[in-house]
Amino acid sequence: MPTILLINDDGIRSAGLLALKNQMESLGKVTIVAPRDEKSGIGKALTASGRVKVTETRLEDGFGAYAVTGTPADAFLLALNKILKRPPDLLVAGINLGPNLGVEDLLNSGTLGAALEAALHGVPAIAISYCMREVRGKEEVTLEELEPTALLARRVAEYVLERGMPPEVDIISINVPEKADTRRVKVTRLSYKGYGDIHKKQRNGYSIMGWTLAGYPDDAPGTDVYTIKKENCVSLTPIKIRFYHNKRTLEGIKTHILLNLNDVSVCI
Questions:
Q1: Residues 115, 93 contacting (CB under 8 angstroms)
Q2: Which among 78, 56, 63, 54 has a CA at the least distance from the CA of 30?
Q3: Which candidate, 37, 96, 201, 255, has a CA 20 to 30 Å from the CA of 43?
Q4: Is the dihedral of CA 173, 233, 148, 101 positive or negative?
């Protein structure tokens, strides 16, 4: 029986986590290890100072879970090394209550941070996000509203558990528009445009009040941003976390070091 690990960044009491759990239970043994409190926008950060506490708790429906005081990436590492008896067969992160679009969110999202940590450890990872168009209280989002998104996540998870991740893919990022027809699905690429002006003036400074689609600059057809904002289709984005290293481009710098710093030892 496959083991499915669930993590989110909205906190262990989020309706998104419960909706996801309800669908994943039919596919395998579900273990939930999630931040006790909301950890949005924290990326793949780890708790480097202080201690992370792990507490057994229960979701609203009585399902047993582990709440951690750390980040989503902390949650994955603690699950991998301290809680589970073997690596999970699949990590599913979400349902994030807000968009996760473009390279900015890949690097900044706590939901995708958990997926990145999983992928770095060879665990297939799915991240799923519900793209609300306007900021509203996360407590206002209901299980019924999230059910189509959770069902879509189950279908993707079922495919991965049966057939493995597609070649050259470490993470599948799924974004679902609000009130979308989940039969309208497109395979997309990440947008590489940065955020717009997301900081709002407050009395004592600036704050990010919440991620909305308006904060993502328009981009070309084929990108995840265009697919969500303009076409109102579900976006499936394959992500491979392998950086390209063009070592030849640094030969000039190496030569400059050798010519100008005689006391520097450089391995040829």
A1: yes
A2: 63
A3: 201
A4: positive
Q: How far apart are CA 28 and CA 22, in angstroms?
A: 11
Return the structure tokens found at 211.
């991620």
Structure-block tokens of residue 153: 């996540």
Amino acid at 170: D
Are 4 and 30 within 8 A, CB to CB?
yes
Kindly list the strands in the beta sheet with 29-35, ordered across the sheet, starting from the edge strand earlier in the chain: 54-58, 64-68, 29-35, 3-7, 90-97, 125-131, 171-177, 234-239, 185-187
Structure tokens at 20: 């996801």
Residue 81 C-alpha from the chain's centroid: 20
The token pair that represents 135 in the structure block: 């900021």
What is residue 248's DSSP assignment? G
Residue closest to 208 by CA, chosen among 40, 35, 10, 38: 40
For residues 208 and 225, what is the distance between their CA atoms, to the nearest angstrom? Answer: 20
Residue 259 φ then ψ, to 5°: -80, -25
Question: Per-residue pLDDT for the chain (268 aa), expressed as one digit of tens each?
Answer: 999 999 999 999 999 999 999 999 999 999 999 999 999 999 999 999 889 999 999 999 999 999 999 999 999 999 999 999 899 999 999 999 999 999 999 999 999 999 999 999 999 999 999 998 776 777 788 999 999 999 999 999 999 999 999 999 999 999 999 988 889 999 999 999 998 888 888 888 988 767 778 889 999 999 999 999 999 999 999 999 998 899 999 999 988 888 876 655 556 5
